[in-house]
Amino acid sequence: QEKSSCLSAALFGEDCEINHEQLYELLKYAALGKSHNAAQPSWCRIYHQSHLAGVVVIVLHEMSQLHFYKFYLQFKHLRRVFRHRFTLTPSASFPASLYGEGANLKPQSTAPGVSSTGGECPPTRAGLRRDPIIRKYGEKKQGLTSYTLTLEEQKKNDYPIRGSPECKGYIYTECDQQRTDSSPLFGLDCEMCLTAKGNEVTRVSLVDAQGQCLLNELVKPETTVVNYRTKYSGITKKMLLPVKTRLADIQNRLKKMLPHDAVLVGHSLNSDLQALEMIHPSVIDTSLLFARNAGRRFKLKFLAKAVLGKEIQCEEKLGHDPAEDARAALELAQFFIEQGPAKVAELNLEMLLTAERLAEASQNKAPLQPQGCRVQKQPTEPPQLPRACFLDCLQVTGQKPLLLGREDLAPSGLCQSNLNSSNKQTLQRALEDVPQSTFSIVQFSLGPEDIASQPRAGLCDKVRSKLTDMLTIYAGPFEETFCLKSVKKEFSKCGPIQSLTVVTETYQPYVCIQYEVLEAAQLAVESLNETEVAGACIKVQRPLTAAMLDCDVLLKELELDVENEGVIYVAGLKDSWTETDLQEEFGQLKDLEALFLPKDLQSGKHRNCCFLKFQKPESAVDALQVLSGWTVKGSKLRTRKALASGHLWRWMQQMNHSKGKQGGSFLDETMEQLPDSGQDLRKKVKKLDQYIRKLYRSLQNNTLCVVVFPGVKSVQGSEAGLGLMGIKDDGGRSAC
User: Fold this and answer.
1) pLDDT tens digits along 344-366
2) Which of 155, 445, 495, 508 is 20 to 30 Å apart from 53, CA to CA?
3) Do 20 and 700 meet the contact criterion of CB atoms below 8 Å apart?
């Protein structure tokens, strides 16, 4: 059976903004594979590229992501088909950045297509600048002291701190000597069992910088073991029966073994030190060293395979081997220090993790390719040659690139014979010619007059106003002496609240609540309407404005959006919970693929809600039933289907924090508009969506399709673009 190509992009919950160089990376690799210096893009990954039937880029000129969300209901096909979405940095010259102009391309009059420059395209490093590792440490190599946790970082990550009331009775290692970049590293790992006291150490391992095991000892817990956790700890009742070593013995031995300038290395080392009831001033935590976005962490097993090429914590073994884990953490830290942040970022760990999950989900467990050996070399940087258009390379290989669009959209330097005067003619030509081409660019446009009829500043205000209204609910009436704190507490169980005010213009008090996420507002309407809150039976409703008349329709369509497929929203979490805590709580849910814990864009603090993404939609439905009424650590959870879990969530956060009016005035603006012009534009957008639907249906299976809203960059201002992408499967939708 022929393999299908697949596209993987780690865009769930991430702040993913792609520039045109990164888009160019994707298109070049999709079109050429590993030939002509083409390499896997730095921000996503294509599997079985050689099996792609073709590449089609649909460009909607003069449109931005603002237009996509303003006309969200009209873009029915786009939102139901394309799973992967990303913000596109606007460019002053979009055609040049997309087609690879800038190398003195000259049009040819003898043949359609692109003239050849003979230049080659070096792989871009643009994606590295946005890597969380680079943002945290920079690109230059540094000594080990640059990677030890500061006191503030230790406090934030629950490390035992000297003098802290919570650490009374803990043993201090007395390693007070000044650390240098030549201080010795020691790997430490413990295995714990659950006892009547809590987590108690039952095995301790310490390895030196050469990987030699200095300590590998079983420890008798002080209290009765409730759960040996043998699957993970490897500890059994039989193993502990003859053991006489106690925690105090291990503490004394560690104090004697560690030099006064020792640096301890471990993965989530805070848990080990807490269990050991020991305080050590200088640590490197590999779960934090290999930084990820949104406070998430890579597992040690994954890092060992992806970076070192080593298999640890194998399923055939009974539990984890702490000596093996300590050695793996130590070698990871050594690798990071020796190679530097830039080389680590080049490993593309986020994409490798997505690849691993994708392979598991499709039951095609292709081995994860270890990257450690690749970066051991120290290659010199290639010279920065002028970037040639990769369409040239296609022609050299005998492939004929196709460029279709309106005459006024023709980019300079590209000679085209297939230009038409209308979107309809472009579509007709595309339906005939695109199936015959391996690479096609199809350009549509609403026309300058249509875009001009909707000034960008006004359009932005209207969209922001509608989003604000959708995030807002009114609750009441309450008694005159009602407790506002009780109301806030009850409504915050639905999700993070941005603002809460008392409405005093009414006969009885009402409360106006603006949430940070759509799901929270909808959950409040669904679960708290006609219930008793603060001693009063209340109604919960959204504001009634002209913009909100289609709110129910919009919410329904958001639930059906393919980006939200298999994703659920969970509220009622405690602000102090970390993603690790949630992984432990929700890890038992069937087919759980990813967890996203939102955080405030300004403070960086986690919110009291999260999104859970499942490999199968039916698993998400099952999870909703399982979690309904679930109580976790004393907090009752509230759940529903996701409405804005991916790109829309990120975009809404940006809109929320940008300047402009905050809602409530959309009605006045709508009444001032000429009613025909807005309706006319909606019809044209709907027709454009239908054109794209027809073109997409005509494509062969296994075709990569990328739809681009280029955005605008000019002296008057900028508006970010939007990209949607997927590989067509047998069902007519993007396969992955």
Assistant:
1) 998 888 878 876 765 665 544 44
2) 445
3) no
Confidence of residue 499 (pLDDT cuts 50, 70, 90): very high
Q: Please identify which residue in the block is written with the tokens 């701190």.
A: 161
Using CA atoms, how far apart are residues 14 and 135, in angstroms rounded to an integer?
Answer: 15
Contact at 8 Å (CB) between 612 and 534? Answer: no
Are 46 and 680 in contact, with CB atoms under 8 Å apart?
no
**What is the token pair recorded at 9?**
């992009």
**Residue 401 to residue 442: CA distance in whole angstroms:** 11
**CB-based contacts of 709, cutoff 8 Å, min separation 6:** 60, 63, 64, 65, 67, 68, 88, 721, 722, 723
Please name the amino acid found at residue 149.
L
pLDDT higher than threshold 80 for residue 72? yes
The alpha helices in 410-540, defined as continuous H runs, are 423-433, 448-452, 456-471, 484-491, 518-528
Q: How far apart are CA 90 and CA 64, in angstroms?
A: 9
- Poorest-confidence range of 94-103, 274-283, 315-324, 621-630? 94-103
Whether residue 477 has a cis bond before it, omega within 30° of 0: yes
Please answer whether residues 351 and 338 qualify as being in contact, where contact means their C-beta atoms are separated by less than 8 angstroms.
no
Domains along the chain?
6-100+390-448+692-728 (no CATH), 142-339 (3.30.420.10), 565-642 (3.30.70.330)
Tokens of 716: 């008057």
The tokens for 277 are 């009831």
pLDDT at 687: 95
- What would the pLDDT profile of 392-431 be if each residue is shown by its tens digit? 666 656 567 888 885 444 443 343 444 556 899 999 999 9
Q: Count of CB atoms within 10 A of residue 373's CB?
A: 10
User: In the block, which residue shows the tokens 């890579």?
Assistant: 298
> Half-sphere exposure of 656 toward its Cβ, with a 13 Å CA cutoff?
23
Q: Both tokens of residue 25? A: 């990376």
Check residue 496 and give its pLDDT: 93
Assess whether pLDDT exceeds 80 at residue 469: yes
pLDDT in tens, 175-203: 999 999 999 999 999 999 999 888 899 99
- In one letter, which amino acid is 239? M
- CB-count burial class (<10 Å; 0-12, 13-18, 19+) for 214: middle
Residue 413, judged by CB atoms within 10 A of its CB (0-12, 13-18, 19+), counts as buried
In a 10 Å sphere around its CB, with 0-12 CB exposed, 13-18 middle and 19+ buried, how is residue 639 labelled? buried
* Of 525, 522, 552, 551, the residue nearest 539 (C-alpha): 525
What does the radius of gyration of the chain's CA atoms come to, in whole angstroms? 29
Helix (H) or strand (E) holding 641: strand 638-641
**Where does 587-661 have alpha helices with state H?**
617-627, 647-657
Query: Do residues 534 and 465 touch, judged by C-beta distance below 8 A?
Result: no
Dihedral Cα 534, 537, 540, 543, nearest 10 deg: -100
Question: How many separate helices (H) and strands (E) can be counted in the chain?
Answer: 27, 34
DSSP 436: G
CB 216 within 8 A of CB 323: yes
- Cβ-contact 726, 736 below 8 angstroms: yes
pLDDT for res 393: 64
- As a whole number of Å, the end-to-end CA separation of the chain is 19
Integer Cα distance of 390 and 117 in angstroms: 10
Reference 184, options 259, 251, 279, 280; nearest CA is 259
Residue predicted with more confidence, 373 or 126: 126
Query: What DSSP character marks residue 121?
Result: -
Integer Cα distance of 145 and 284 in angstroms: 9
